[in-house]
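Limitations
The structure tokens in this dataset are predictions for the assembled complex, not deposited experimental models. Users should treat interface geometry with appropriate caution, especially where small molecules or nucleic acid strands are included. An illustrative entry is reproduced here so readers can see what is and is not provided.
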Amino acid sequence: MQITVNGQSHEVSTDPQTPLLWVLRDELGLTGTKYGCGVGQCGACTVHLNGQPVRSCSVSLGDVGGGSITTIEGIGTPEKLAVIQQAWIDHQVAQCGYCQSGQIMSAAALLAGTTTPGDADIDAAMGGNLCRCGTYPRIRAAILDAAKRLHQGG
Amino acid sequence: MAKKTRSLTRRAFLVASAAVAGGVAFGYYKYRETPANPLHAGPGEVVFNPWVIVRTDGVTVITPRAEMGQGVQTTLAALVAEEMDLDWSQVRAEHGPAAAAYMNLAVAKAGLPFADYHDSTMKRVAEEAMGVVGKFAAVQATGGSTSMIDGYTRMRMAGAAARAVLLKAAANRLKQNVIGLRTEKGAVIAPDGQTIAYADLAETAAQIAPPARPRLKNPRDWRLLGKPLPRLDMVAKVTGTAPFGIDTRLPGMLFATVKANPRLGGTMQSYDATAARAMPGVKGVFDIGNAIAVVATNTWAAFQAAEQVQVTWGPAPYPATTEGIFAEIARAFDRPANSTLRDDGDVVKALAGATVLRADYHVPYLAHATMEPMNAAALLKDGRLTVWAPNQAPTVIRDKCAAALGLSAEKVEVHTPFLGGGFGRRAEFDYAVQAAMVAKAMPGTPILLTWRREEDMGHDFYRPGALARMEGAVTKDGPVALKAAVAAPSVYASQARRVLGLAPPGPDKILVEGLFDQPYGIPNYRVQGHVSDVAVPVGSWRSVGNSHNAFFHESFMDELAHAATLDPLEMRLWLMKGQSPRAVKVLEAAAQMSNWGSPLPKDHARGVAFCWSFGTPTAEVLEISQTATGIRLEKMWIAQDVGLALDPDTIEAQAISGAIYGLSAAMMGEITFADGAVEQQNFYDYDALRMQQTPVFDVKILQSLDHPTGVGEPATPPAAPALANAIFALTGKRLRSLPLNKQVTFAG
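Predicted assembly:
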């Protein structure tokens, strides 16, 4: 079957019951999306499906259908960083970094729907993303900063 | 604490000239001659291993410590870059191979049974001896918050040695004296402005013998160190391009998982893999000793098939339930103490005829629960094994994989990618040996072994459960006696048996650290450790013994303060005076930052705790509030004295990280056992602090020494007692058992 990831179409022959996470990682080599728990508890595998944040460990390939998937690789690259990634760098957010793809995907979805998120919005959007290094204070600061830049067009 | 410089610099070599990966490498190796010891001439001694690689487009620094979030590779690279006068944009860091040259001397010294705040001749002599032992053991390890303590001089020397020969090469080329030359942004600059890039000098420079003692910069002249630097791994980590172990991909790679006995250390009696072998994508099911391994075309297929393998497991070599395990731990109190590392005054006499408090404390087993589950990739080809393992001890990984496959260590190559968290879990080698055994079953095929989260939760080397019996006596002036006894399985013995095959006898510092080594001038003060031999595998968990002992000690200090009707912070300050000016300043800073003693809003309360660990005195004040949905953590103030702050931004991040790790465990962390197996499966029953539960942080970093002390762990120990003490202040309930969410409700 065909799936569309970051604007590119891919032919995959994997069992349709396979979670999207493993298709991305093991079949397409898109390793930026991480495995953390496999049961939608930690958010490390967060991607966007038609613009909405989903846990890719809990969405099967068959359920994706013709939907449009965006992964961290589709948000920005080292050469062409997205505003949110630049905010993450400016606040030196990442420690081990393993959860950060998922954190950024959840935050990007929040910022796509809200121009001026408050603390409660951030709590609600980010509560499903676990970080064992405890980078939450800097994530919060980076989201607020990115919102400002996006809102002010810069 | 400043001894390591002396022990390392008697004689120095710069071994230069290797061309490494298209660049020119400068290796720097120091050793101390002890002619009385013939082992010094051993072949592993003079190692040819570079720290500095000059490339045409910059400099790669070999930073041979695991990057597991603490920013270690950035700061280690900065130590070299500072001495070489590099522009930060020219610097790259690579972990490099497993090698004796990269041994960690500080980690061995940190295990000595001396209170860190109390410097003594005996401690110095023992540290010298331990430096020698560490060298022969030659363990390359990341742990014990030692990376900067170990690397501070060594990495700067490596940079300074490289710069010295680059200068000389430039002088030779320009036919000028070195004195007139200077270095800037990766180039040598002559008085007339002529500029020669290091890359253009590297090949000839590498032929020049370096000075025996390269001169180090005066810290006054530092341009990179002491200031926040952008982390070298940051761009990769926000773009999904940072290679973690689990991201290792090789042509033709297959994907594997394991299913090991949930009764830890038990045997595998029989298994039936018929159904699993018939599943789509499955390439093989293998017996790897006490586990089966499934190899498939993708990780998910391997996970699914592993669940279908029917296995009969042998019993656990320890009591089958949590209650049974703790009853066994408690029995250690009945045996004589094996670690009495503090016995001041006459505690028995002092406890007679005074206002005596007695309290029993309990903490549970804990998992590390790194975000990246255990994994390793391996390839066995032409009699050589290559392992890609996110790990904290590459030389141990190398040796254990070699032993498992019957290879010599030289036939094993270890790569250390980024670690998605470590916290001590990845100081173990089990996952890498499993990958090696799967690779052996499928020679020529690269395999990536990934554990399911459930496997990871149930097959950890846990922070041991621990019990404490505390007794104290107070007068109106404060504590006059403190008697502490702790019983727990020995992390030290458990690890030593795994790594060395035996546990050397002697006092167990880890068991009593955080209890015996605190800078309080209590006149009658005894701390004893009772080792329990419960065989649940235990290991280093961020801050190790301090993680439980600070909870015991600092909660009980709070009890003593209230018994004496003294302010808990003021009482500690009073006890520290004359013991340690560093500790006093740290606690005073925490008091000032938090405005300790000032009136609080209704339903708010504060708690304070202190712990000196890994050379770094740390004080934490936590303000909490009672809300309609439960107790909420409002704000935490952290003050710590890191000796010398090499990167304040990274240190602040570690302080907050350490505190959150400690708070998570205190609030909700508990591993329990039933039928010999760990009951917790995943993050739904072993969770940690989430964004909305995290307090606001304010961190103050003090500097009082000419060298750095530990930063990765010291903020963890005070977190639990600061919270429990705040809860006492809020509710009047003294909570002596963790996790706290079994006794109070926290806001979600």
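Some entries come with short summary sentences. For this one: The two ends of chain A are 40 Å apart (CA to CA).
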